[in-house]
Design brief:
Elements: E1 8-9, H1 11-19, H2 21-29, E2 32-34, H3 39-56, H4 65-75, H5 84-107, E3 111-122, E4 127-137, E5 143-149, H6 157-161, H7 164-176, E6 182-188, E7 194-198, H8 201-220, H9 242-251, E8 262-266
Parallel strand pairs: 1-4, 5-6
Antiparallel strand pairs: 2-8, 3-4, 4-5, 6-7
This protein binds iron/sulfur cluster (SF4).
């Protein structure tokens, strides 16, 4: 019997399509990739791995701050920093963030159920999936999906509510744990600031309807026409896209962004692990 694999959609894929179908085509259909590991991505990855190790080992209940910092040192990736001084400054910033994280985690009455896990939900035409940083059980009995941000200093409830990836994470958790209300939160690692949102079942259904509508549109769209706009300024595919270059020429006095760093090899052929590559497929 032949099994047909259903297409898979992550929030990153959906967001890229909504931003520009042509960029989606370049990245996902043609498999083009670009970029190098940036300091921000390298630091974020080191922090994520340290926190994953820390929580897997029991978190603040049976780990002290030194154990967390040891996990950070073991997770540190020194590549991508321009100089040793730059690497040291990023390392120190990460260490300060983790010390503050530990103090906040120690005082919070919540249970971390797991970290760094991919959830998925199967719809008839596709599979929706997303990688979640952390899932907690709150004293109220609610669950909370926590998304770490290593670059941000502050966040509002509105920003959480309007984020497509966070809405998808919340939807996936709600479908996986249907007996519990599920909140979703952003946690800014550098400041400890956070904001959390609870959606009603009706609001989650609206999110689900929007996600399904977008995924089905992608599946039916054979043309993937470009939609030039402000996103062109940061798009790595301008060299392949006359419409985007025209938009930039009409809307900016500066020359179109250079293609430096762009790597037209199919995904998997290049040997670095970061840059602007989609986070979860
Ligand atoms: S340059 Fe603009 S229009 Fe062209 S693919 Fe990129 S985002 Fe889309």
């Amino acid at each position: 019997m032949i099994t047909v694999r259903r297409p898979r959609f992550s929030p990153t894929r959906l967001e890229m399509y909504l931003t520009c179908p042509r960029a989606y085509h370049c990245y996902y259909d043609r498999g083009l990739r670009w970029g190098r590991l940036t300091p921000a991505h390298a630091l974020g990855g080191s922090l994520h791995r340290a926190l994953q190790h820390f929580h897997n080992a029991g978190g603040p209940r049976n780990q002290d701050v030194n154990a967390l910092l040891a996990a950070y040192r073991a997770s540190w990736v020194g590549a991508s920093y321009a100089t040793a001084a730059d690497a040291a400054a990023h390392f120190a910033a990460g260490e300060a963030a983790l010390r503050a994280y530990y103090e906040a985690a120690r005082l919070k009455e919540r249970e971390t159920l797991w970290t760094e896990r991919t959830l998925q939900y199967r719809y008839p035409e596709f599979v929706l999936f997303g990688k979640i940083d952390r899932l907690d059980r709150l004293p109220t009995g609610e669950l909370e999906v926590v998304d770490y941000k290593s670059g941000r200093l502050a966040v509002s409830e509105e920003e959480v509510r309007t984020s497509l990836p966070l809405a998808v994470y919340q939807l996936l958790a709600a479908r996986t744990y249907p007996s519990c209300p599920v909140r979703v939160a952003i946690y800014c690692l550098r400041t400890g600031e956070s904001a959390s949102v609870l959606r009603s079942p009706q609001e989650l259904e609206a999110v689900e309807a929007g996600v399904c509508r977008t995924a089905l549109t992608v599946l039916e769209d054979d043309e993937k026409e470009p939609t030039p706009g402000p996103a062109c300024a940061a798009c790595p595919f301008t060299r392949l896209c006359p419409e985007g270059r025209r938009y930039l020429a009409d809307h900016t006095s500066a020359p179109a962004p250079s293609a430096a760093g762009w790597d037209p090899r199919p995904r998997g052929a290049a040997n670095n692990g970061g840059g602007l590559r989609a986070a979860d497929g």
